[in-house]
Amino acid sequence: LKMSWFWLYLPLHLLIATSLCPSIKAPTTSSQQSFKTDLFSFYHSLILADGKETTVHLLKDIPKRYYFVLEEGRVLAPFSITVTPCDVPIEWSILVYKSPPGKATPGDHDTQEVSKSQKAPSWVSTIFNYKGNSVETYMGMSSHSALYLLEFLSTERDTHITVYLTTDTTSGHLYPELPTDPRIDVIGVGHTTVTLTWKHSPSVLQHRESIQYCLLVNEKHNYKSLCAAETAIRSSGMKLPPTLALSLSPYLLEPQQVMILSNSELSIINKVSSGEVRQVCMGTKNTYTVPNLSPSTQYYFDVFIVNLLTNASAAYTGTFARTLEEPEPKVTELKDGKVIHVVLDGKKQKLYSLQYQARHKKIHFTFQLCRGQIQVHITRNGKTVASENLSGLRYFSLKGKLLDTYLVQLRATEESNSSVKVQASPHFHKPLFPLLPESLKIKSFSKLRTCRSVTIAWLGTQEESKYCVYRKRIEEDQIWGELQSADRCSGPESRHKSEKVLCKYFYDLNLQRAVTTETIKGLEAGTFYLFDVYLFGPSGIPVRYHSKVVKTRKKC
């Protein structure tokens, strides 16, 4: 805007007196004193830029003022002002100075002039006033040259706002346009999902390449602007990427943030004290299903239309929805002596329930962990009797009453698939698994390694049992994958015949001497081998020792 010559009309001594020596009181009329007060406000104000979004920082209970002057010579000049609070409610107002004072000095005390000035209407008026935390826009029209003052005040705490002034209301908008109906509709609710839809912004149809929708999900409340949402997340003790990690700026992620990019959608999950805050940008799609929510939880959803070129945004009217309660887990009946193989999908099926009704006072539960990580929780008539994370083979011997009801709940503790074999039986029932040694580890002897052979050892029991040894040649980069993916419940039937080394029987009544060794020959120099030992008991169901990887010597 062209600056007005307004200040040239102000007497220099009046500027000095009102700004530097407010205690010096020159003989003035009441209207002139009012003018000096208003002049003081202008003198300590800042110029508000036209056509640019300005960030204003406010200190508690300290007003801040900006002014702008409409261009002289224009008839019916339009302008608009948009104020976006970024935190707490604020107060703001617009004052207009319609007629600048003349060049008369305040020393002129003619009674007739005083009388005229007392009768004249005030040349300052308040044309707009607002208090709250909503985004507000004032649109005005001026028929003559005028000077405007904007005053902002925060009475709750220090905060910041953004202010956008424009006198060019015909060549487009900084902020994307909202549809006439800016509501978000909830069209589907599940146990862990909510499906939303909203009407397209007119800006999407005009500037599809530079406009996108971004969704904010949280468990606290709705936000009236993207600026307010970012401020709330920062106040939770974390830093956000610059305005909109949402606008595809995936740098500067903090440790509390997780970024997921799939199907052209960017998701950023912030771990905060009040729960998760998710930000998802989905391009120009106006329907979205929010996944991986918690059952029976209320969530708040806000959609923002974002201009990627300017980072300016507009907020749809937020909504909320409560996910459905978690369905009762399906209960499977356990029968005496019957083995059930349970497979848990860590991503979908977190809980599996088994029920057993006792026909004897003493009950024996057996768990063989096959893969992954599983937690077992056993209750008797609703009271907990056992709870722990499974490791290898585990027995629980419990004593109760006839017809007691036992509920076994299995929960996967990691996202990968987990599996376990379960058996419930009276204590005198024929054991499902063989008698186990104190340790299922396989030991190798480094000093006995050669280029062509390896010596291994393992513990046995006081019961004569069958042991079978298998070997498999592997590469160094396969070791971790082989050990992690091993199914500890699988038997030798899953192995290739060429991998079998030998089978042998042994036992010793003295557990201190129940140890056996075996030297495996015919190996290649400098090569990694995976060794497995299977123990067979009376039932014929094998127990697999922990796999052991050994490398033969390269040179002998």
TrEMBL record:
<dbReference type="InterPro" id="IPR055271">
    <property type="entry name" value="NDNF_Fn(III)_1"/>
</dbReference>
<feature type="domain" description="Fibronectin type-III">
    <location>
        <begin position="176"/>
        <end position="313"/>
    </location>
</feature>
<keyword id="KW-0524">Neurogenesis</keyword>
<protein>
    <recommendedName>
        <fullName>Protein NDNF</fullName>
    </recommendedName>
</protein>
<feature type="domain" description="Fibronectin type-III">
    <location>
        <begin position="434"/>
        <end position="542"/>
    </location>
</feature>
<dbReference type="GO" id="GO:0008201">
    <property type="term" value="F:heparin binding"/>
</dbReference>
<dbReference type="Pfam" id="PF10179">
    <property type="entry name" value="NDNF"/>
</dbReference>
<feature type="signal peptide">
    <location>
        <begin position="1"/>
        <end position="17"/>
    </location>
</feature>
<keyword id="KW-0732">Signal</keyword>
<dbReference type="InterPro" id="IPR045805">
    <property type="entry name" value="NDNF_C"/>
</dbReference>
<dbReference type="InterPro" id="IPR019326">
    <property type="entry name" value="NDNF"/>
</dbReference>
<comment type="function">
    <text>Secretory protein that plays a role in various cellular processes. Acts as a chemorepellent acting on gonadotropin-releasing hormone (GnRH) expressing neurons regulating their migration to the hypothalamus. Also promotes neuron migration, growth and survival as well as neurite outgrowth and is involved in the development of the olfactory system. May also act through the regulation of growth factors activity and downstream signaling. Also regulates extracellular matrix assembly and cell adhesiveness.</text>
</comment>
<dbReference type="InterPro" id="IPR036116">
    <property type="entry name" value="FN3_sf"/>
</dbReference>
<dbReference type="GO" id="GO:0007399">
    <property type="term" value="P:nervous system development"/>
</dbReference>
<dbReference type="InterPro" id="IPR013783">
    <property type="entry name" value="Ig-like_fold"/>
</dbReference>
<dbReference type="GO" id="GO:0005576">
    <property type="term" value="C:extracellular region"/>
</dbReference>
<keyword id="KW-0964">Secreted</keyword>
<keyword id="KW-0677">Repeat</keyword>
<dbReference type="Pfam" id="PF19433">
    <property type="entry name" value="NDNF_C"/>
</dbReference>
<dbReference type="InterPro" id="IPR056225">
    <property type="entry name" value="NDNF_N"/>
</dbReference>
<dbReference type="Pfam" id="PF24354">
    <property type="entry name" value="NDNF_N"/>
</dbReference>
<dbReference type="InterPro" id="IPR003961">
    <property type="entry name" value="FN3_dom"/>
</dbReference>
<keyword id="KW-0325">Glycoprotein</keyword>
